[in-house]
């Protein structure tokens, strides 16, 4: 036996395992995708008419149709954030079931367990995004994006999925129980609300507006909206990328540190 | 794989010197020394919280130790954890199987992580599932398994990589007697095949049945070490227990068997006569009763078992007296018998603790 480790091969083994999990336990995937879809329907049909008149929609227009185009990109971000919860839950389940201990006593690449979870979660997130996008199109979302803009928006959403999956994995490893793990990433799914996903920050009181303008989801929302609905992006694209890089690095380092310490007691 | 096993098999034991571990100001291991010879079963016996699991977690590279040195399968614990991971298998207190995967998928997952080629992985999986009588359940999700089946699957997964050293942390806790016996047979087979096993248990019978050597761990220290027989010899306790119908018989028997060492329990109508439990000792007692025409209701031979050892050695507080299987304080009964000739005779110790002969 050689001393070489096989990080890619091990990660693919773990990915296959996580995909089997998603396939056999689909209720988790369904649960995390329901919240953003309910939000979408609620805001389009309950509040859409009023909000479409009440806020000044960038890129012009008013009414429910214009508001749906304003809202949908933020809902897609919420879908990514909501899907990332599944990583915390599955990582924490592995830990409480003791199988992480088994993996840690084997000579396998240290990162492969978590890489498998992160990649598996990203695939689940893509499915969730397609589902949410389908519903959005059905309720009147009319994006005006070129192929390049679609690709750029998709890439940005994938990067967000990557960053949040690492962060969520770290939260899962740091949780004592699966219940804690499922609650820890919850604030992430609410962050788009406190940004520009639902209404423009201009309409908020000063303190909240300040937070809304500087939190990571606002430049992300603005960029995805700009790409799909044609509103102004400005320097939001670069700010969004910087945030994503920062969250990814933080999530990765935190996860790896927590993985080293993760011993089931 | 067979070739590499041969070259280092001689060193496939476990040694540890002065292992220490503390969580904050709570000392869990306070200088533990171990020497497990290759191809033997070594049992760590101790009450809950004695540090058994911590010892296993340290030696299996799961957690870092604060002091001391250790070698597992010929590799230094601090310097070559990955080499150790290649040589060991760990089956913990709670079965670490993937509940959503089938038994077969669980096995193949481990085979993939060990980088066995596909055919070898399948062959090994089929072979182990067969040996562990899990073939019928191979395609069912592990979550649907009984406790005993999960534990068997867990052990089977541990064996995919043909580990030379296996850590079994309370492998039969929570299993029913039948599953426990099945596990014992599997463990005996492993050692017969040359594997070294470090077994932790709180079941004295388990250590007695399986282990070549036993260390009693208490409060993070090893308080005694030896074979089951050696440990039992450290605790005096063999006796013949006679039960009578009435106080008169008890009195006359006590006077006939008037050994300074016999103890009367008037309220229970019993007489404890120190003995090695041998046939000749029992016969001589019966002869005396017969010749004196004293009728005894029942006779029980009690040889010291690991329960006596365990309770005597892990008794907390200075005055804790060891008790025998009947709950009577053994120290008072055998206080004067420590020098009894049979107490030092290894052949006096019988693996079967209690035999009852009814007349």
UniProtKB/TrEMBL annotation, chain A:
Q: Which residues form a coiled coil?
A: none
Reply yes or no: does the keyword Transport apply.
Answer: yes
- Any idea which UniProt keywords this protein has? Antibiotic resistance, Cell membrane, Membrane, Transmembrane, Transmembrane helix, Transport
* Origin species: Streptomyces longispororuber
Q: Where is the ABC transmembrane type-2 domain?
A: 27-262
UniProt-recorded Gene Ontology molecular function terms: ABC-type transporter activity
What are the transmembrane regions? 25-50, 70-92, 113-141, 147-167, 188-212, 238-259
Q: What's the protein called, per UniProt?
A: Transport permease protein
The family database entries (Pfam families) matched by this protein are listed as: ABC2_membrane
Please state the span of the N-terminal signal peptide per the UniProt entry: none
Record's GO cellular component terms: ATP-binding cassette (ABC) transporter complex
Automatic annotation (TrEMBL), chain B:
SMART domains given in the database record:
AAA
Biological process per Gene Ontology, one example term? response to antibiotic
- Listed InterPro entries: AAA+_ATPase, ABC_transporter-like_ATP-bd, ABC_transporter-like_CS, ABC_transporter_ATP-binding, DrrA, P-loop_NTPase
Where, per UniProt, does this protein localize? Cell membrane
One Gene Ontology MF term: ATP binding
Q: Which GO terms describe its cellular component?
A: plasma membrane
Tell me its EC number(s), please.
7.6.2.2
Signal peptide bounds: none
The record, for SUPFAM superfamilies, names: P-loop containing nucleoside triphosphate hydrolases (SSF52540)
Q: Where is the ABC transporter domain?
A: 14-244
Tell me where it mainly resides: membrane
Membrane-topology annotation of the record: Peripheral membrane protein
The UniProt keyword set, sorted, is:
Antibiotic resistance, ATP-binding, Cell membrane, Membrane, Nucleotide-binding, Translocase, Transport
Q: Give start-end ranges for the coiled-coil region(s).
A: none
What PANTHER family does the record tag this protein with?
Answer: ABC TRANSPORTER ATP-BINDING PROTEIN, DOXORUBICIN RESISTANCE ATP-BINDING PROTEIN DRRA
The similarity annotation says: Belongs to the ABC transporter superfamily. Drug exporter-1 (DrugE1) (TC 3.A.1.105) family.
What is this protein's record name? Answer: ABC-type xenobiotic transporter
Species source reads: Streptomyces longispororuber
């Amino acid at each position: 036996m050689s001393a070489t480790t096989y990080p890619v091969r091990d990660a693919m083994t773990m990915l296959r395992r996580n995909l089997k999990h998603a396939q056999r336990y689909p209720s988790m995937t369904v649960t995390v995708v329901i919240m953003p879809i309910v939000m979408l329907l609620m805001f389009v049909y309950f509040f859409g008419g009023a909000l479409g008149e009440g806020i000044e929609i960038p890129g012009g227009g008013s009414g429910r149709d214009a508001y749906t185009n304003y809202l949908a990109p933020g809902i897609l971000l919420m879908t990514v954030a909501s899907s990332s919860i599944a990583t915390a839950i599955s990582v924490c389940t592995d830990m409480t079931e003791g199988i992480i201990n088994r993996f840690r006593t084997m000579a396998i690449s240290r990162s492969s367990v978590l890489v498998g979870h992160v990649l598996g979660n990203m695939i689940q997130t893509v499915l969730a995004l397609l589902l949410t996008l389908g519903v959005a199109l059905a309720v009147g979302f009319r994006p005006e994006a070129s192929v390049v803009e679609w690709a750029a928006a998709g890439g940005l959403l994938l990067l967000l999925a990557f960053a949040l999956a690492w962060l969520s994995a770290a939260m899962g490893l740091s949780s004592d129980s699966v219940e804690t793990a499922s609650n820890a990433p919850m604030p992430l799914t609410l962050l788009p609300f406190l940004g520009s996903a639902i209404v423009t920050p201009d309409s908020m009181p000063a303190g909240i507006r300040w937070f809304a303008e500087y939190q990571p989801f606002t430049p992300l929302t603005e960029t995805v909206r700009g790409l799909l609905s044609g509103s102004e992006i400005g320097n939001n694209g670069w700010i969004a990328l910087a945030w994503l890089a920062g969250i990814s690095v933080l999530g990765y380092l935190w996860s790896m540190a927590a993985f080293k310490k993760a011993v089931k007691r | 794989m067979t070739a590499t096993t041969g070259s280092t098999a001689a060193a496939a034991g476990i040694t540890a010197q002065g292992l220490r571990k503390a969580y904050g100001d709570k000392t869990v291991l306070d200088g533990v020394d171990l020497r497990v010879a290759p191809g033997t079963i070594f049992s760590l016996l101790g009450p809950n919280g004695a540090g058994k699991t911590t010892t296993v977690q340290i030696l299996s590279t799961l957690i870092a130790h604060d002091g001391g040195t250790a070698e597992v399968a010929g590799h230094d614990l601090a310097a070559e954890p990955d080499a150790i991971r290649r040589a060991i298998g760990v089956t913990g207190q709670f079965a670490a199987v993937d509940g959503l995967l089938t038994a077969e998928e669980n096995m193949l997952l481990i085979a993939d992580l060990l980088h066995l080629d596909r055919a070898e992985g399948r062959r090994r999986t089929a072979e182990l599932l067969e040996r562990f009588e899990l073939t019928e359940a191979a395609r069912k999700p592990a979550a649907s398994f009984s406790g005993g089946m999960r534990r068997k699957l867990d052990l089977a997964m541990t064996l995919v990589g043909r580990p030379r050293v296996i850590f079994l942390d309370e492998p039969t806790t929570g299993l029913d007697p039948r599953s426990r016996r099945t596990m014992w047979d599997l463990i005996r087979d492993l050692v017969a095949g040359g594997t070294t096993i470090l077994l932790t248990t709180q079941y004295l019978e388990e250590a007695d049945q399986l282990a070549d050597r036993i260390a009693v761990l208490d409060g993070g220290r090893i308080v005694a070490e030896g074979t089951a027989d050696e440990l039992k010899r450290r605790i005096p306790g063999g006796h013949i227990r006679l039960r009578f119908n009435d106080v008169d018989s008890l009195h006359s028997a006590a006077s006939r068997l008037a050994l300074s060492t016999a103890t009367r329990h008037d309220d229970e109508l019993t007489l404890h006569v120190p003995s090695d439990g041998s046939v000749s000792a029992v016969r001589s007692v019966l002869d005396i009763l017969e010749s004196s025409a004293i009728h005894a209701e029942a006779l029980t031979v009690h040889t010291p078992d690991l329960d006596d050892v365990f309770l005597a050695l892990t008794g907390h507080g200075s005055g804790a007296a060891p008790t025998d299987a009947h709950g009577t304080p053994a120290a008072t009964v055998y206080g004067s018998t420590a020098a009894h000739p049979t107490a030092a005779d290894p052949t006096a110790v019988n693996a079967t603790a209690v035999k009852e002969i009814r007349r």
